[in-house]
Amino acid sequence: MRATRQGANFIVVLIMLVVIFRTQITAIVNNAFAQINSGAGKINSNITLDGGKK
Question: Using H for helix, E for strand and C for coil, what is the string for the chain?
Answer without folding.
Answer: CHHHHHHHHHHHHHHHHHHHCHHHHHHHHHHHHHHHHHHHHHHHHCCCCCCCCC
